[in-house]
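Bug #77: duplicate submission created two jobs. Keeping one. Sequence:
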Amino acid sequence: MSNFFIIRDKLPSLNDVIAKNRTNRYEGAKFKKSIETSIGWEIKKAVIAKTLKPVVTPCEIEVDWHEATKRRDVDNIHSSIKFVLDAMVKNKILKNDSRRYVKQIYHEVVDDKDNYVVVRIKERSDENAKEPIP
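Kept job's structure:
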């Protein structure tokens, strides 16, 4: 069974976050909380729909960032992963977003007619672990 959820919105870029934080730290904190709350609702909907369940083992996360325009740089788009992971922890999908639990994050930006984000969680077994480079 696939373990995923969809964020049916365009998440802010790093430039948006920096601009809010420069206004004042309270505006920045309020902005972060509102984004995480919005993502939290999408997580709750996916749990109810049974497309998402909590993960207690180490995992890998795949994120498809669907973008309606080509105006934003890839690094600015990817920066919203912070909000996604924090919302997943807050909503008890991940125990923690440390490297102990999140082993890898894969990103792909997809040119599309709509803005949305697909987040897939894949539990990782020991045989999926990479060999250390000698």
